Amino acid sequence: MAEQILDGKGTGKRAGVNENNRLLTFAISERLSVAAAENGENYNVNTGSITLTTANESAVLYVKNNEEKNFIIEDVIVIFGASTGGTGDLSIELIRNPTTGTIISGASDADVVGNRNFGSSREFVADVYKGAEGNTLTNGDLFSDTTRSTASTVVHFDADVIVLPKGTTLGVNITPQPSNTSMSVKVAVVGYLF
Question: Which residue, of 26, 112, 143, 174, is most buried by count of CB atoms within 10 Å of its CB?
């Protein structure tokens, strides 16, 4: 006797099978980030504008995940304004698991830690700090770096696979162009809980 798959809601409907013996189904697929946004667990972090007044390295962003879930980073975006006096290359470093430095000891909250679901009041449980000229990250490992020959540009690290489990951290260092005396920079992180 053939088995039948019946509707669990009691309507008496049966599952169909096509001529290739495949079950007929209807599904809606969506990216994990979309599902997280619908659940109020997708976030935008932004330092706001930071003015760097030398050509020395400065820590500009620190993120520590304090959630029980992993924080999946989809993109790290660095936005540079024009440099006053700067010529040559500027550099950006992503630092894996920093735990010390003046960006942490002198913590200043990032300007934006926003839920990407405008109907959700759920907050991201994390330490998210913006840096300033001369701030430091004194440990952690270099994860990724890049250089640019001009300011007034946007850099996407387009990570999509950086995973911050509970207690882990990400830091961002920026070194402006040689001879820089003033350059505005903003750093944003887009990610979701999973």
Answer: 174
Percentage above 70 pLDDT, the chain: 98
pTM reported for the whole predicted model: 0.86
Taking the CB of residue 141, how many other CB atoms lie within 10 A of it? Answer: 9
Quick count: other Cβ atoms within 10 Å of Cβ 14?
10
From residue 32, alpha-carbon distances to 119, 130, 174, 194 in Å are 18, 28, 31, 8
CA distance 108 to 43: 19
| Residue-wise pLDDT tens digits, 129-170 | 999 999 999 999 999 999 998 877 889 886 668 999 999 999
Bridge partners of residue 121, in order along the sequence? none
Summarised one tens digit per residue, pLDDT across range 45-61 is: 999 999 999 999 999 99
Who wins on pLDDT, 58 or 14?
58
How far apart, in whole angstroms, are the C-alpha atoms of residue 59 and residue 42? 25
Spell out the domain ranges in the chain.
Answer: 42-193
Does residue 99 come out as left (phi exceeding 0), alpha (psi in the -120 to 50 range) or beta?
alpha
